[in-house]
Specification:
Chain A: It is a multi-pass membrane protein. The complex is a heterodimer of chains A (about 375) and B (about 325). Chain A is mostly helical and about 375 residues long. Helix content of chain A is about 60%, strand content about 5%. The relative contact order of chain A is 0.11. Chain B has a domain of about 80 residues: Alpha-Beta Plaits (2-Layer Sandwich). The N and C termini of chain B lie far apart (about 60 Å). Classes of the chains: A mainly alpha (about 375), B alpha/beta (about 325).
Chain lengths: ~375, ~325
């Protein structure tokens, strides 16, 4: 028989210990606060003001206007000027700049034939007129920065000759749902809930049980009538509450600081979050039965945390990963939660829309608790 | 199967052929024991002699490799859970929460053992008073002295009024005065009908037990009441005083009739086989060339019993030859 009284005893003891442990208590509040502020401001996939250099071999009014137009896009910022392309390349190697614009001496001749100025398109056979007006050499190692500069490839130059811009009819019409302004924070803030919960929930629980053995309390506990499952439940409940507090901090602050609204129902949010907290806690408990001290528990937490950050779709799109990586990512509760919380917060998804992920997480929780309880019993 | 004989209500613990192996090492080797109600039973032995393993088997924490035990009517190996409610266990090192106060620790124990609310409060009150912890009631356990912590540990172990109390080297970390007080409290518990099993490697502690069993490498060497064991020692104890005791010890250890010798301050305590006639003269004769010595017979103490039973620590051939 599971005794409510004994679970209550463990629970009360955990709360007392938590209250005295200022450091842990502080971490519970400060981790979401600081990381939200940090990531919300810092992570930006929409790149602007890339520092670049300039080699102007033309030195004409036209070349200066071209440079001004490129600067006006705000994608790049000209910070250095070099005399020769060789110097520019050295500067690229030394990482002074991320890219260099090289304007050739025959700029005017190239410009007049360029389709970019809005004149009639040249015949396809005219090889000379097909030449670009200038060249970018780019440090292509960072794909996001390279993509930002590549977006300049076909920029129109009609304004160079004070002509009105041509009306451009796009091939496709784009309607961006859920994040029309393309702000990174809209995607980052709900994802951060998953990352911070993964970190704190797994870390606290795995350390919580190990601490009992490390401080010698386990020897006393196993001589009492307390059952492993009672110990597990009593230890989990306070951290469930902590997890919910953290979610409230992240989403509340996300709304205040980054204007990320919660579009979905709070009830759905609660259900989804509790499922994820449960899955993370049971994973933490399993780790705690493997680790023999708190340091090992930390190391195992990091082992789980890194793939949760990198593979779950928090930073890089899940759909872009190769099949085996997706299979591994699917094992992590964070991956499912990432899809679900973005669903609830941004798209107002209903519970039924996420039945698969929810079932998986519920199964994960039960399985984890079972493994932890069985493993724990063996150590008695 | 014939019905088992009705259990004697006075027998609290009985074991037959109790054995526990850890891999190739045998920690406890075919031990037979009977412990009756209201006695303090001591396991005496050096570190690694199987005392803790023995106690862990009797509490159901470890499953015996062979043999069986019956503790408070519960058969082991079997389902030990019902036993947990009836026994108390005080671990070797302080195992309560250092970041909780004395009262919080006791309250935790009371809840774990399922004491009803009113009784919980009254019982904690009583224990604080009895174990002289009222002044420390709201002190964090980690900031208390070793003696105070030990009182807390005992209070927590007896909180649910167990019939059988296990104490694993209870006083190895406290001063002699605290140890004396601690034992006075144990005798109070015994008066109340509690049976106590204690492990120790202190002779003075073992001497206070009603009965002891001396364990060595998992084997029970001897068992009985300390006075009987001292009286029944199969050796005579000779005390030698002299100048060159270290040299004298070498000479004596080489002799077949000498069981062991140990230097205690300015004296050498020598155990001589009981069948050796006139042991004082024998020892004096052996030491004839080792300078002026005086020999006289003295009463055996528990340490002599221990040394004789374990044959330990004394006659190492390398030392004798050196």
């Amino acid at each position: 028989m599971i005794s409510i009284g004994r679970i209550g005893a463990i629970l009360k003891k955990e709360l007392l210990q938590l209250r005295r442990d200022r450091m842990t208590f502080g971490m519970v509040i400060m981790i979401p606060l600081i990381q939200l502020a940090l990531f919300g401001y810092a992570i930006n996939t929409n790149i602007r003001h890339i520092p670049v250099g300039l080699v102007d071999q033309d030195q004409s009014g036209l070349s200066r206007m071209l440079v001004q137009m490129v600067g006006a896009t705000q994608v790049v910022e000209f910070t250095q000027t070099y005399a020769t392309p060789q110097q520019a390349q050295q500067a690229l190697t030394a990482a002074e700049v991320r890219a260099v614009l090289i304007i050739p001496p025959d700029l005017p001749a190239r410009l007049v034939r360029s389709p970019a100025i809005g004149a009639a398109p040249p015949p396809a056979t005219d090889m000379v007129s097909a030449r670009p007006v200038a060249q970018w050499i780019v440090d292509g190692s960072d794909t996001m920065i390279a993509a930002g500069i590549k977006s300049l490839r076909s920029m129109p130059l009609t304004e160079l000759f004070r002509q009105p811009p041509n009306r451009v009819v796009p091939t496709f019409e784009m309607a961006l749902f859920y994040n029309p302004e393309q702000r990174s924070a809209v995607n980052i803030v709900p994802g951060l809930v998953g990352i911070i919960l993964t970190m704190t929930m797994i870390m606290f629980t795995s350390a919580a049980i190990v601490r009992e053995s490390e401080r010698g309390n386990m020897e006393m506990l196993i001589n009492t009538p307390v059952r492993p499952i009672e110990l597990m439940i009593g230890k989990i409940i306070p951290y469930m509450v902590i997890g919910l507090v953290q979610v409230a901090i992240i989403l509340g602050l996300g709304y205040l600081l980054f204007n990320v609204p919660v579009n979905g129902s709070l009830w759905v949010l609660l259900v989804v979050t509790l499922l994820f907290i449960g899955a993370s806690l049971s994973l933490g408990l399993v780790l705690s039965t493997i680790a023999t001290n708190q340091l090992q528990a930390m190391q195992m937490t990091v082992f789980i945390l890194l793939p949760s950050i990198l593979l779950s779709g928090f930073m890089f799109p899940f759909d872009g990963m190769p099949g085996p990586a997706q299979a591994i990512a699917q094992l992590l509760p964070a991956t499912h939660f990432m899809q679900m919380i973005r669903g609830v917060v941004l798209r107002d998804a209903a519970l039924m829309d996420m039945a698969g992920g929810m079932l998986w997480m519920a199964g994960f929780t039960v399985f984890g608790l079972l493994v932890a309880t069985l493993r724990f019993r063996k150590r008695l | 199967m014939s019905p088992a004989p009705p259990p004697d209500p006075e027998v609290v613990v009985s074991t037959t052929g109790l054995t526990r192996r850890f891999g190739p090492k045998t920690a406890v080797d075919t031990v037979d024991l009977t412990i009756t109600r209201g006695e303090i039973f001591g396991f005496l032995g050096p570190n690694g002699s199987g005392k803790t393993t023995m106690m862990r088997m009797l509490t159901g924490l470890l499953i015996p490799s062979e043999g069986r035990a019956r503790v408070l009517g519960v058969d082991l190996p079997g389902k030990p859970e019902p036993l947990k409610q009836k026994i108390g266990y005080m671990t070797q090192s302080f195992s309560h929460y250092r970041d909780l106060t004395v009262t919080e620790n006791l309250d935790f124990a009371a809840r774990i053992y399922g004491l009803p609310r009113r009784r919980r409060k009254a019982r904690i009150e009583t224990l604080l008073q009895r174990y002289d912890l009222e002044a420390q009631a709201h002190q964090i356990a980690g900031s208390m002295s070793g003696g105070q912590r030990q009182k807390l540990a005992l209070a927590a172990a007896v909180l649910h009024e167990p019939q059988l109390l296990f104490l694993d080297e209870p006083t190895s970390a406290v001063d002699p005065e605290t140890r004396r007080q601690f034992w006075a409290r144990l005798f109070d518990l015994v008066d109340g009908g509690t049976t106590i099993i204690v492990s120790t490697h202190f002779m003075d502690e073992a001497e206070r037990c009603h009965r002891i069993a001396i364990l060595e490498t998992g084997i029970k060497r001897i068992e009985g009441a300390p006075p009987d064991l001292m009286a029944g020692l199969k050796a005579n104890v000779i005390e030698v005083t002299g100048d060159q005791l270290r040299h004298a010890k070498e000479v004596l250890d080489a002799d077949a009739a000498v069981l062991s010798s140990a230097q205690i301050g300015a004296r050498l305590r020598v155990l001589v086989r009981k069948d050796q006639a006139d042991p004082e003269t024998h020892v004096a004769a052996l030491l004839h060339d080792a300078g002026p010595v005086t020999c006289h017979r003295t009463r055996a103490n528990l340490e002599d019993v221990f040394v004789a039973a374990t044959g330990g620590g004394a006659k190492r051939p390398a030392e004798a030859a050196a």
